[in-house]
Design a protein that fits this description.
The chain is α/β, with parallel strands linked by helices. It has ten helices and six strands; from the N terminus they run βαβαβαβαβαβααααα.
């Protein structure tokens, strides 16, 4: 006699620096078919715990202390290909939305979502559905279409296409020969922030230094 199959339990992990949010999300999504296998406050903790518990669904806030949520997604997505990563954040920023999806997130939810809708989104993400409000999904598609029209050359270089809008601006100025301080002045950001963007650009492009990154940009297409 064949034994009945055990019901699937979706294993979920949370990354949010607010204890109250972690508690509220846990309460909202705990169900007969959903269990919380980890809840941590920082991306650094998440890197250790997620690789150990290997959750089915990972809910990630963007505004984290230290490494932010998008950087965490960039680090974890290649290492956890079976995990569905969904952003759960207050941010509706175009940059955050595009960066998160480019780097491996399969959903983007805002924290004004109802508990029932969040539970359904977790179940849908586990099944491979896009976990995103229809308005945000439509906006994402419009932005991607617009971006492809304005930067067709990037399509010939997949790694250049992974850069965020701000990183592309920094790289364009680098290719024009500007220093970090000059780029900072042009973009109204700090030289330290420019340095952070440059480090991310070098990592994404797999190059050793700024000169190689600038040459890659000039030779695109």
């Amino acid at each position: 006699m064949t034994e009945p199959r055990k019901p699937v339990r979706i294993r979920v992990m949370l990354v949010d620096d607010h204890a109250l949010v972690r508690a509220a999300v846990t309460q909202a999504i705990t169900a007969a078919d959903v269990e919380i296998v980890g809840a941590v406050a920082t991306a650094e903790e998440a890197l250790q715990v997620a690789l150990s518990v290997r959750p089915d669904v990972l809910l990630v806030d963007i505004d984290l202390p230290g490494m932010d949520g998008v950087q965490l997604v960039r680090e974890l997505a290649p290492r956890l290909p079976e995990t569905r990563i969904v952003m759960l954040t207050v941010s509706t920023s175009d940059r955050h939305l595009l960066d998160a999806m480019r780097n491996g997130a399969i959903g983007y939810l805002t924290k004004d979502i109802s508990p029932d809708a969040l539970l359904q989104a977790v179940r849908g993400a586990y099944e491979g559905d896009l976990a995103m409000d229809q308005r945000l999904a439509a906006h994402l598609i419009r932005r991607l279409v617009e971006k492809s029209r304005h930067a067709p050359a990037a399509a010939d270089d997949p790694e250049l296409a992974t850069l965020s809008d701000r990183e592309e601006e920094v790289l364009r100025h680098l290719a024009d020969g500007l220093t970090d301080r000059e780029i900072a002045t042009a973009l109204t950001i700090s030289p330290r922030t420019v340095g952070t963007h440059v480090s991310s650009i070098l990592h994404k492009l797999g190059v050793r230094n700024r000169a190689e990154a600038a040459r890659r940009y000039r030779d695109r297409g």
